[in-house]
Amino acid sequence: MQNRYEKQIKLSEIGEAGQKKLNAASVAVVGVGGLGNVIASYLAPAGVGRIKLIDGDSVELSNLHRQILFSEKDIKENKAHAMHKKIKELNSTISVESFPIHLQKNNIDKILSNVDIVVDGTDNFKTRFLINNFCKQNNKTWVYGSIDQWHGECAVFRSRGPCLNCIFPNIEEGLFQNCNESGVLGPSVGMVAMFQAQLVLQEILFPEGNQSFLYLIDTKNFEVSKIKIKKNKNCLNGRTSLPEISYNTYLNWKKKDKNIILLDIREREQYEKDALEGAEHLSYRSLLQSPDALKNYDKDKTYVLYCEKHLKTPFAKGVLEENGFKNVFILDQGYDTLRHCEECSNVAIKAPLSLRGVEDDVAIL
Amino acid sequence: MKIKIKYFAFYRDYFKKECEEIVLEKPLNVEDVFKMLLKSSPLKEKLLSSTLFAVNQEYVDKTHVLQEGDELIFVPPVSGG
Ligand SMILES: [Zn+2]
């Protein structure tokens, strides 16, 4: 019987072993517009085993010149759903999941936490930085790509290497736009997207790469510049730009670094009643009264703060930083939200360690 | 001392050329050259802080001092997709 992958398996660098890696890989395509169309339409036939498609927009007539898998009858259909059908036709043996929503802070954990590689098919830097920071915090690789008029860029950002924030730390959306939305030719978009698709496949096949490059693609003059990029020492792994982390991110960090300290800064009575599992207590009130409250804390450790409603934590973070603490983060949701969040089944709430003894006594009685 | 400057994306439209050679009277760093070329732009500080600079295909800090024959590229972020 013919093997649909035989031509790629024939490559000595790939072989059966490489094909197995592709089949076992899970990739999320965020944004299924011009870039995402072409990316998905190469990943699926190559046999990438699990593909997630995320896009909240619907297909429009003016998309068709570059979003080449969509046809006239797809107009008005959600892009993620439409693409889901298309790539299942391209390869029925892979598993595809589609999300007809925009990637946001409140859904990113759920959608991206179990994928190996995230690939950027978005058209804005807000979402790109959301992906960048999520990937940094969760040790994932992502493949950046973008195009305006004739000029495209792409890069692989690995967890240990430079990130988007290292090379473009102060992006303001719109600063570089000349006027309105810029135009683009379909093949220009395709060229950048094919670079991205190739980078994704190579990252799955040969993940040991450690040199990072930004590729500049001049699609009009057919020139590619390969710029060697490196970590910016002022970018603490994407953490400085996003001091807020989700509860899930905290759990992931905690698994790798036992020294991370979760600090409950509510009033003592509230903390004693119930709190997040493992949290220590340092009241905001005592922190404002005197920095002496900090004298028993190690400045080199990493701290994650939370309060009731996420209102006091930014100020508390400021106080810690003024006193020389360098790694201070805050949970992006307050305790009141976390405790009542129905989807957050993993939020562990227990009486704090210091009080467990009391609880046990009660149980014995 | 002669250096070559290549403009990418936004900067190609801004300067209306793809590249040029300029002569420096004395050694200057990337920031000096950038500000010299964008002297009339009210946004030059903002543009400076959001632009990536590469010399001879390698990312450099804006304090990097240029040498004879260097090729400097101005790379803005590109946002479409
Ligand atoms: Zn970084």
Label this structure with key terms:
heterodimer, A: 365 residues, alpha/beta, Rossmann fold, 5-stranded parallel beta sheet, 15 strands, B: 81 residues, alpha+beta, Ubiquitin-like (UB roll), binds zinc ion
Oligomer: heterodimer
Instruction: Give the SSE string of chain B.
Output: EHEHHEEE
CATH class category of chain B: Alpha Beta
Query: How many separate structural domains of chain A?
Result: 2
The CATH H-level homologous superfamily of the largest domain in chain A = NAD(P)-binding Rossmann-like Domain
Based on CA atoms alone, the radius of gyration of chain A comes out at 24 Å
Number of domains of chain B: 1
How many runs of DSSP E, i.e. beta strands of chain B?
5
By DSSP (H or I, 4+ residues per run), the number of helices of chain A equals: 14
Bound small-molecule species = zinc ion
Query: What is the name of the CATH architecture of chain B?
Result: Roll
Q: How would you name the CATH homologous superfamily of chain B?
A: Beta-grasp domain
Helix content of chain B: 10-25%
Uncertain spans of chain B: none
Low-confidence stretches of chain A: 353-365
Order the strands across the largest sheet of chain B as they lie in space.
2-1-5-3-4
Helix and strand run of chain A: HHEHEHEHEHEEHHEEEHEHEEHEHEHEH
Mean pLDDT of chain B: 92
Query: Structural class given helices, strands, pairing of chain B?
Result: alpha+beta
Distance between the termini of chain B: 40 Å
